[in-house]
Amino acid sequence: MERKLRGRGMAASWYGIARTATIDRAxxxxxxxxxxxxxxxxxxxxxxxxxxxxxxxxxxxxLGIKPSEVTIGDNDTARSPEAAHAGATRQTYMIGNxxxxxxxxxxxxxxxxxxxxxxxxxxxxxxxxxxxxxxxxNLRITMEEAVVICKARGVVPVGxxxxxxxxxxxxxxxxxxxxxxxxxxxxxxxxxxVDTYTGEVQVLGxxxxxxxxxxxxxxxxxxxxxxxxxxxxxxxxxEDYQTVNGHTSTHGFAKYILxxxxxxxxxxxxxxxxxxxxxxxxxxGIGEPxxxxxxxxxxxxxxxxIGVRMxxxxxxxxxxxEALNKKTHGREHYVSAAREQRAQAxxx
Amino acid sequence: MPKLKIDLEVxxxxxxxxxxxxxRLLDFLRDxxxxxxxxxxxxxxxxxxxxxxxxxxxxxxxxMPVAKASGAKIETIEGLxxxxxxxxxxxxxxxxxxxxxxxxxxxxxxxxxxxxxxxxKADIEEIKERLGGNxxxxxxxxxxxxxxxxxxxVIAGDMPEEALNEEEVGKSYIGHNVRxxxxxxxxxxxxxxxxxxxxxxxxxxxxxxxxxxxxxxxSIDTSEAEAMDGVVCVITxxxxxxxxxxxxxxxxxxxxxxxxxxxxxxxxxxxxxAEDLVIARKALSKIKVVYEELPxxxxxxxxxxxxxxxxxDYAPDNIVKHIPVRKGDVDTGFxxxxxxxxxxxxxxxxxxxxxxxxxGIAYVDADDVVVVISPSQNITHHRHMLSHILGxxxxxxxxxxxxxxxxxxxxxxxxxxxxxxVVAMKTHRPVQLNFTREESIIxxxxxxxxxxxxxxxxxxxxxxxxxxxxMISDGGAYGMSSEGVMRKAAILSCGxxxxxxxxxxxxxxxxxxxxSGAFRTxxxxxxxxxxxxxxxxxxxxxxxDPFEIRRINMMKIGSKTxxxxxxxxxxxxxxxxxxxxxxxxxxxxxxxRGDKRSDLGGDDTRAPCTLGARFTNGKNTNxxxxx
Amino acid sequence: MLTCDTYHLPTxxxxxxxxxxxxxxxxxxxxxxxxxxxxxxxxxxxxxHIPSFVDVTRVAEFEGHSVAHGRIRLGANVVYQDFLTDGVxxxxxxCMPYCAIWFADDQIREQATLAGNLANASPVADGxxxxxxxxxxxxxxxxxxxxxxxxxxxxxxxxxGPGRTVLQSGEIISSxxxxxxxxxxxxxxxxxxxxxxxxxxxxxxxxxxxxxxGRVFDDVRLALGGVGPRPIRLNAVESRLRxxxxxxxxxxxxxxxxxxxxxxxxxxxxRRSVVIGFVKAGIEEALxxxxxxxxxxxxxxxx
Lengths: 348, 627, 303
Fold this sequence. Notes:
The complex is a heterotrimer of chains A (348), B (627) and C (303).
Chain A: E1 4-16, E2 23-33, E3 37-42, H1 51-63, E4 70-72, H2 91-118, E5 125-128, E6 131-134, E7 140-142, H3 143-152, E8 158-166, E9 183-195, E10 201-211, H4 218-237, E11 243-244, E12 247-248, E13 266-272, H5 294-306, H6 317-325, H7 330-347
Parallel strand pairs in A: 3-4, 10-13
Antiparallel strand pairs in A: 1-9, 2-3, 2-8, 5-6, 6-7, 9-10, 11-12
Helix pairs in contact in A: 1-2, 2-3, 4-5
Chain B: E1 3-10, E2 13-20, H1 25-32, E3 51-54, E4 57-60, E5 73-75, H2 88-96, H3 105-118, H4 124-130, H5 142-156, H6 183-187, E6 203-209, E7 215-221, H7 223-227, E8 231-235, E9 261-262, E10 268-274, H8 277-284, E11 288-293, H9 300-303, E12 319-327, H10 330-335, E13 339-347, E14 359-364, E15 370-374, H11 379-390, E16 397-401, H12 417-427, E17 431-434, H13 437-443, E18 446-447, E19 450-458, E20 464-476, H14 482-492, E21 502-510, E22 516-517, H15 524-542, H16 546-553, H17 572-582, H18 613-616, H19 622-626
Parallel strand pairs in B: 1-5, 6-17, 15-16, 18-22, 20-21
Antiparallel strand pairs in B: 1-2, 3-4, 3-5, 6-10, 7-9, 7-11, 8-10, 12-21, 13-19, 14-15, 14-17, 19-20
Helix pairs in contact in B: 2-5, 14-15, 15-16
Chain C: E1 2-8, H1 13-22, E2 28-30, H2 36-39, E3 48-55, E4 65-68, E5 71-75, H3 82-85, H4 87-92, H5 96-101, H6 106-111, H7 114-120, H8 127-133, E6 137-144, E7 147-154, H9 155-158, E8 159-161, E9 164-165, E10 172-179, E11 185-190, E12 203-210, E13 217-225, E14 232-233, H10 235-241, H11 248-263, H12 269-289, H13 298-302
């Protein structure tokens, strides 16, 4: 046997967006502010996934200003409306959409004043990147100027919104129900190299394809996929929180092994955009879906390389070498059983 | 406390100070000089968040007793650039999206800076090696590498400085790679997380945790601890109203501090608030707890047996939650199958390992509002629960979210904010609790482990006729998110395939192990690990390509999910097609083709890492290995 | 958590020895100090109070290295990073760069000394097998009636068991001397669950010298770590190979011999399995890394 053997495997996946088997909700406030800037206040929980930036883009896009001109308020139960938690891959969907709707309302109030001030139809007004204009005329000003006009007329352009996702509970007997109004799908392919001397596995490449509905910030989506893949790799190959009779032996990071920069594959991301028809933005989510297919893709790749089916995670070097050393004809079992059944069927 | 005098230079500023003899350089920088950009992710030299330059060499400051740095020139993240500026490396991190939660980022920027100082021409393999001492849990490192290579090119003059600027927008900001708003504060180390915050007159809290997995608390004597100089108060469950005590995500089965008995090693039993950390820790050893050990259950299958020790009185069978899903008739489905596969799969308990250990501050403001600042993933729910537990009107409890240094579901449980609030109310002084890494690991929830029994029936043409899926999960000592995890696992269990006959059961069980709770995918990956393994095994048995068997069974518009929800949208076909194309997948049945396939070793893979890039001149290329 | 009362940074060997011999019970001698803080934490030693630290990293006599009579003497303050950056060390100690690059990470290598690593005597230390393969000798200094005296031990004799060495109270490692093996090829094999910050389960240091024709083993040094409390020099394997023609067959049978030796010392199946591969790979990679000679395998020659 060669020392290093390579193989490939794939896995498909699916996931649901926002809270499960219940109605989900999020609220937001928006204000077009002096200088053509904006304030967005919502219970957003930035945990590193990039939601703050995404909300700034959503607000900026709807209001017609730059993301850098959007200030997002702190998440504080005494200062911001409820947008519930960071989890369930819900923030882009729930908060993104509620911010979009709140911004739309704020803009509407501004446009009402401006339309009247200019004597044009409100539908003729557009804004982008800090400028406001009317399609019916040559009128074009900065958002800063538009806000001055609006406020001079006694109106502060504020808006608010609540976005709802309709999930239903599950039947207690057969589990039937509609737990989410939106689903996402994904597929990952893994290429690995197995060191048959030591049982060590290196993942050399991952191709990750995920439906995100609409990529508001493509680089941000990739970052989530890359992070999810590496967490999946960690669980697949090295991480193991162990306890014996309730006492842990993995107290710290010396024993609880996490992937380092030297362990990660080249990660090739492809984003599929199957717009969600039930929400204004059409975006879905990526945080959790990114990590679902990684471990099975890697295990399937290991099988392709060395013919050993790892059914217990993590697939540590020790477990792999042990399985390799006592490789039975396990896989033959299915193949020959299948052949035998097929033969019988043909005879019968 | 014993003191020592230290003279050194930090960020070009001469420092001459007296400090505690036991401090590490890390503590001196953070506490004495208020340079909180350097972080304590683990305190044991394993994560790199504490990296600083000492006399030009990058070291881990959590491993350096402060006296060792005497006379040295220290450079921290704050010293890399002038106030208000960013170095090309920091700008590159901003440009490529290399910072997510940001907690590892100051250390990572330091490691990247060091890499290019040591070798401005370092290739990607050497760059990866030089970053090998820094862990990132959020980004998967990819955009960090991109940042270092971009910075390298700009510094060398191979790319213009403009390459670090933001991209020009096209017609819309939707779909545009807007740089992260929070990146500048993170790459410069200026963003303050909860452990970096200081309030005037603030106390330090430490928590006494159970050494036993299951034991009655016979008595707790806090008198000696309370009598210590510098100890301001000691709290136990006596300080929390008994009738309302109890928090959790689905079931409120967890007390703020252990009440009557402890259910897992690491459970909070008492807490001390003192003038400084050392006194608080010393006081812990003075609290006398008398335990009566109880038989415990450590395996979910044992816990479900008759006569097993009961973890929570309300659940005498130790079941946290069982979720059933049924569709069609599995018996008929299996009877109609040409091929039946049956197997078992297991996954382990997994630690979130966010680089920021839990931390928080609580105080009571002038309007008698109890304020809790913490990196909580659900401040709405936490406020609701805490106000109920403490018997306060909801608007007299305020939760402020501090910047979160990684969550992944591990910061959804209110495992310490209650203690902070109680001390704040008792003392009317601000109080801070910073978890050690070990404390975080032992006290916070883990990803549910799983044991799945899987039976799948298929026709020769690859169509699945029936699936029987049964998963048991160790929920540990408290409910946390177990119910939701079982529900999601059950709903997603049989994968993105239209299966007409299925029987799915997921069960979470109480044990005296570290609790399992919310963690990215909430049961979805455990279930689909089993499904996707079975699908490949079926593909092999049927002589089919793995993409092919999935296409045959995939959900489409109009398909009914396992919970009989009719889909109005489905995109698996597009995902499969794209994955096959992008990966240049060579079709074939998965019968151990590794040595025969021709789609390996492409430009879109990396070379295997054999270490030694900085002295082997890239000997180990992809081409050589595949040949 | 670690607390202490005093921290000393002596600048001469004499003052270090004086401080150390007078240090109160429970005090610690440290150089890099990279092991002590991780040790004083929950799950390991817990809260620890050390009355006094004697830190020898400023001791002038411990700096640098010197070469004489085919041996190189490393001062006790040589850090692991030096094996990657110091041209003299890279040239004379061909297996050390490969050993060092597997050791922790850059930051820790800047502080962690070889001497400190040896003093810890961990069965899974990476430095000990490499030092054993280089015929390492540890020099211990002490004060006797006001005079500085030394005694020397081979690394195998220096280590008594896991975490135990011959160091007496008042003694400090002053240097480590190794064979200067310019012209040899070196390698280091280590198995771990990832590629950085790895605590190895087993490791193997190898040094080889092919003769000027590239066909014969002039010298072979092999040492294993992680299999038992002390590093194991594979003396029987080395003797078998010295003077032999370089061939895959010879290397394979040598690897088998090594595995048999290990089997008698360790019940761990995994270590045994791994050793065969390591010895093979160790020798082959070391041959590749011998830069001044074109190695010619017998099989390829006869083909």
